[in-house]
Amino acid sequence: MAKKYYVVWEGKKRGIFTSWNACKKSIDGFPGAKYKSFADEALAKKALQGSYEEYKGTNTKKKELSAEEKKAFGKPILNTIAVDAACSGNPGLMEYRGVATSTGTQLFIQGPYTSGTNNIGEFLALVHGLAWLQQKKQPAMPIYSDSRIAISWVKQQKCKTKLPLNKDTQVLFDLIKRAETWLKNNRYQNPILKWETKAWGEIPADFGRK
């Protein structure tokens, strides 16, 4: 297993490299190369689906939690729903879903959509989950997401994606507009909670493709 994973968003060759020398070959002589090292392969794969700007300046060193640290997080609330997205490429085929946290039973799934991003999927999944809870008359049930970006976008009622609008992404932008409109026109009390992956493992709605 590699000790570090180097994500190159913009270089002679885009992708994930498991050695600095391989990464260096891709970025040397490439104007404005964008790259960053990660200590965790799963995080590197997720980062490649996003953008360099989302990870620039963040701490990407893997830190294993001690038993005491895990204990401090407590245990996840089981009477909740959990949402997640999966995206193959950036942009690429994207889909999202929601499940019952306690059982993993799938409650809804949407996609795949072409030319999507993971962050857009996480945002749409959260809004879909909130609308689903409203429809089921569950105004107090919490909803889990492992994406801080998506949680922030929902609170701001705005999907701040940098994905360009074109004929390939028009369907997604229509969905984004509908989600933003729902957030502005509906009040919800459901707590939006961050799923603590380091303490609890992958979120139950994870597609298992890492």
Number of helices: 8
Q: Fraction of residues in helices?
A: 25-40%
The chain-level structural class is alpha/beta
Q: How many individual β-strands?
A: 8
What form results from the Cα inertia axes? Answer: globular
As residue ranges, the low-confidence spans are none
Q: Describe the main β-sheet briefly.
A: 5 strands, mixed
**Range of strand content:** 15-25%
Radius of gyration, taken over Cα atoms and rounded to an integer in Å: 18 Å
Tell me about this structure.
The chain starts with a strand and ends in a 10-residue tail after the last helix. The chain is built from eight helices and eight strands, in the order ββαβαααβββαβααβα. The protein has helices at residues 20-27, 41-49, 52-55, 67-73, 118-135, 148-156, 170-185, 197-200; strands spanning 5-10, 15-17, 34-38, 81-89, 92-100, 106-116, 143-145, 192-194. It is globular, with a radius of gyration of 18 Å. α5 (118-135) packs across α6 (148-156). With 210 residues, the protein is of the alpha/beta class. The chain has a five-stranded mixed beta sheet with strand order 6-5-4-7-8, with helices on one face. Strands 2-1-3 form a three-stranded antiparallel beta sheet, with helices on both faces. The relative contact order is 0.14. Helix content is 36%, strand content 23%.
Give me a quick take on this structure.
This protein has 210 residues and is an alpha/beta fold. Helices cover 36% and strands 23% of the residues.
